[in-house]
Amino acid sequence: MVVSTPRTAENSGADDPRRARIVEAAMQVFLAYGFSRTTMDDIARAVEISRPALYLLFRNKADIFRAVGETMLARSRAGASAVLFEEGPLDARLMAALDRALFQMFRTIEHSPHGDELIDVNHNIASDMVAGWRQGMIGCFARAIGEEAQRRGVRLEERGLSAESLAEMLFDVLEGLKARGLCGTHAEESARRFVTLIELALREK
Questions:
Q1: Residue 30 in contact with residue 121, Cβ under 8 Å?
Q2: Distance between CA 11 and CA 40 in Å, rounded?
Q3: Cβ(144)–Cβ(94) under 8 Å?
Q4: Do residues 93 and 86 make contact, with C-beta atoms less than 8 angstroms apart?
Q5: Which residue in 31, 136, 122 sits closest to 74, CA to CA?
Q6: What does pTM read for this prediction?
Q7: Which string of DSSP letters, residue by residue, matches 39-72?
Q8: Residue 13 in 3-state DSSP?
Q9: Cβ atoms 122, 130 nearer than 8 A
Q10: Distance, CA of 16 to CA of 6 (rounded, Å)
Q11: 160/170 Cα distance (integer angstroms)
C-alpha cells in the first residue's frame, strides 16, 4: 500500500496559493504569539480553514515554521541580489543589500514581543536552511566585490585577500553580533564599518 505524506516546505510547490496563504498568516501569528503559544488551531483560524485541511498541507507547527523561514529567506535573498548588481558605489550597494538580506528581517523580529524565542526556535529547527542561505549570500556578495575589484584593476590576492574571504568575514561579523543579541542598530553600524574596510581593501594604489 502506498501511503501519501503531507506536503512540507521541502516537498511542496512554492506556487501553491493555499500554502502561500497559510505561510503569510502563520508568519503574523508567530510574531504575535510566539512559537510555543501558537497552536495549529490558531493558524487554521487565521487562514479561515479547518484544522484537518491544514494538516493536509503541513505535518505540524514546526513544518509551518520552516515554511515561514523559507519564505522570509527567499525574499531576503531575492531582494539583496536585486540591489547588489545595480549601478552605483559599491559601499551603497552592499549596505542596501544587507538591509534587504538581514536588517529588515531583524527589525521585523525585534518588533515582536517574542523575537528572542523565535530566534531560538529558528536555530533549533531551521538551522540547515539558514546555513544554506548564508552560503548563497556569501557567494552573491563575493561576486559583487570581485566584479568591483576587476573594474578597478585591483588584484586582491596580491594583498592576501579574496572577494570570497571579504564576504565571509562580513557575514562572520554579523553572525557574531546576532549571537550576542545585537541585531539592530549595533549590527548596522558594525556592517557599515566593515564595508568601509572592504572599500579600503579595493582602493587603488
A1: no
A2: 20
A3: yes
A4: yes
A5: 136
A6: 0.82
A7: -HHHHHHHHT--HHHHHHH-SSHHHHHHHHHHHH
A8: coil
A9: yes
A10: 14
A11: 16
Residue 48 Cα distances to 22, 28, 54, 135, 174, angstroms: 9, 14, 10, 37, 38
Per-block mean pLDDT, blocks of 10 residues, the chain (205 long):
36 71 96 95 96 96 96 93 94 95 84 84 89 95 97 95 96 77 70 94 86
Which has the closest alpha carbon to 40: 25, 28, 55, 21? 55
- Contacts of the segment 151-155: beta carbons below 8 A, 24+ positions apart: 152/202, 152/204, 153/204, 154/202, 154/203, 154/204
* The pLDDT value given to residue 171: 93
How many angstroms separate the Cα of 190 from the Cα of each of 169, 177, 197?
12, 9, 11
CB contact set of 92 (below 8 Å; sequence gap of 6+) = none
Measured distance CA(7)–CA(21) in Å, rounded: 15
CA distance 103 to 87: 22
All cell numbers assigned to 197: 574596510
Sign of the Cα pseudo-torsion (120, 126, 130, 131, in order)? positive
Cell numbers placing 44:
487554521
